[in-house]
Amino acid sequence: MRPAIQLALxxxxxxxxxxxxxxxxxxxxAAINQATxxxxxxxxxxxxxxxxxxxxxxx
Length: 59
Hints:
Blueprint: H1 3-17, H2 21-34, H3 37-49, H4 51-55
Helix pairs in contact: 1-2
């Protein structure tokens, strides 16, 4: 996945932790909409691997 898309997903996670859900969704959706089909598979895996980043769990 392109670094810009990964950065957008990371920022989306940060916004979610700060309860800025609308901003997080807009940013994440924009990144996903610009992704290629191959990147979308990587994004799904990244989201699965980083669920805790969105909810702030650190255990």
